[in-house]
Amino acid sequence: MRRTLGVLVVTAVAGTMAGTVPASAGEPPAGAGAPAAAAVEEQRLDRAVPREILRRSGFDSVAGGFAAALRSADSYAEAGRVVDRHGSALWRRAVDRAQGRGPARGDLSRDDDRPLYWARLGMTRELRAWEPRFALSAEARERLLGELERTSRGQDTMDFPGAGRTVGKGFKRIVLTGFDPFTLDRDIRISNPSGATALALDGTWLRTPDGGLARIETAVFPVRWADFAAGTVERTLRQRLPEADLFTTVSQGRVGRFDIERTNGAWRGGFPDNENVSRTETVPVAGPAAQPQWTSTTLPYAAVVAAETGRFPVYDNTSVTEIPAGGTEPVVRPDGPTSGSTARAGGGGNYLSNEIAYRATLLRDRLGLHDTLPGGHVHTPVLEFGAGNTDPATGTVTDPGFVRNRLDIIAQVRAIVAVSAAHR
């Protein structure tokens, strides 16, 4: 069975993980912390496919250069500057490569999102294993890891030209997010078209069908339950949504189709994340006493579905899974939730794509922007390898059909965003 980011409804045993934590100014707490063990994601780095992807993209020297810079740091403050500089450089290098700037440095197609993912993990592994010449507590190391995550994902550089001017004056501002690859233990070759789209569109301008001009700023998020519980979505988007004209979270969904997800649910279904951790629970948010079971898209779904945006069909997906008021068992509702029901899956399921849609739209509503800011979730088609290259045990890391599928998905997301912006 093919797993997709957000559309599978499952249950599993809850687990724990040491996730990234918010950055903190000042000196680290006193005391020395031992180097941290490699995370589950990092343990996959030594397999043949990640090494090939890094080599064929020219990103195989990233972790080594970062490690050398860390070794030269003689204080926590200097280490912080190293992390910030190298994390930001990795994001910019991945964006430049995707958008055709600078040398390709390898024969892997420029649109590939996987070099960023694997290079980042090489850097986080080096940071966990680093033994500095000064005392560094475990908490301080976690803060450095958090800073590396944010800077290498574009989460701290979503800045629009003319920030502070009246929104919508001169051009429209669009926020778009993507995800890392996932289900890597099933097929370690996997690429995520939403992450590739974020790299391809970051900082770009587009003409909307009504003749308007729009600027897109993007970021990529991890496929890890703990990071979401720690507030990575809200921390990244809280300052961006009030100055935006449109936002869309994007993830990989179903085979052969796009979906505009009408409704998002406040439930985690438990499918394991990239750290092989499961969570089955209500989506944990600040202010849970005022937490709704459902949030809804404000994207112009009817206009998007009606438009010619690319070769994949686009659907207005209204289905959810709920426990009806007074009931005990989940029921699929093709036309959306009923009054007083409890969420068990949004249109996008109950994995992290549903959760980012739920968190982003809940943040929109809590900021008082429901009636003025179009926003919601777009599920892309599953990015499939070409014919004859579907077996992960014998297949190659890329092929012409795989590249063509990814490029077509990127182009169609761009067209969907353009149509959405024209109906702002």
Automatic annotation (TrEMBL):
The keyword Membrane does not apply. The keyword Cytoplasm does not apply. Keywords: Signal. InterPro entries: Peptidase_C15-like_sf. Residues 325-348 are annotated as: Disordered. Residues 1-25 form the signal peptide. It comes from the Bacteria. Gene3D superfamilies: Peptidase C15, pyroglutamyl peptidase I-like. This is Pyrrolidone-carboxylate peptidase (N-terminal pyroglutamyl peptidase). It comes from Streptomyces wuyuanensis.
